[in-house]
Amino acid sequence: MAKSEQEKKRRPLTEEQLDRIAERLPEILGHSMFVEVESGKQYRRRHDDDDGSGQGELVLIIGPDGDVWITTDQHQGPTMRFRIAPPIGGGQSKRTYNALRILALAIKLDNEERRQYQSTPAVT
Which pLDDT tens digit goes with each residue over 26-68? Predict the structure, then answer.
């Protein structure tokens, strides 16, 4: 018997489960882990106050070497570009690196659930 889409969805986490995750977050971020995001891809999300202009976005780029690049567009000022290398590649910010990969996955999931882009792909 096939499950309905509603049955396939996971149950929400309980307050107790969320508290346990929050308590262990420093340990989780400090652990070597691999978050499933594709290398060579850009993960884009437009900010919520774009004034209808369609501008103002955060872009995370996962390079083929695993580096994570963060960029913004010039909607509110100069473009920012920032790179975090993976710990195995000499990076010195393993928690930040892990958090950015988690952010890329979050952007991907948000775009699947609530797409912001009509013609430009949110993941390229």
Answer: 888 887 666 778 888 889 888 877 667 777 788 898 888 888 8
CA 118 from chain center: how many Å? Answer: 20
Q: Tell me, rounded to whole angstroms, the distance of Cα 72 from its chain centroid.
A: 14
Region class of 56: left (phi > 0), else alpha (psi between -120 and 50), else beta: left
Token pair recorded at residue 50: 């774009």
Query: Which residue, chain included where needed, has tokens 């106050």?
Result: 49
Q: What is the pLDDT of residues 86-116, one digit of tens each?
A: 777 777 888 888 888 889 999 999 988 888 7
For 119, phi then psi, to 5°, come to -110, -30
Q: Tell me how far apart the alpha carbons of residues 69 and 55 are, in angstroms, rounded to a whole number.
A: 19
Q: Are 116 and 46 in contact (CB under 8 A)?
A: yes
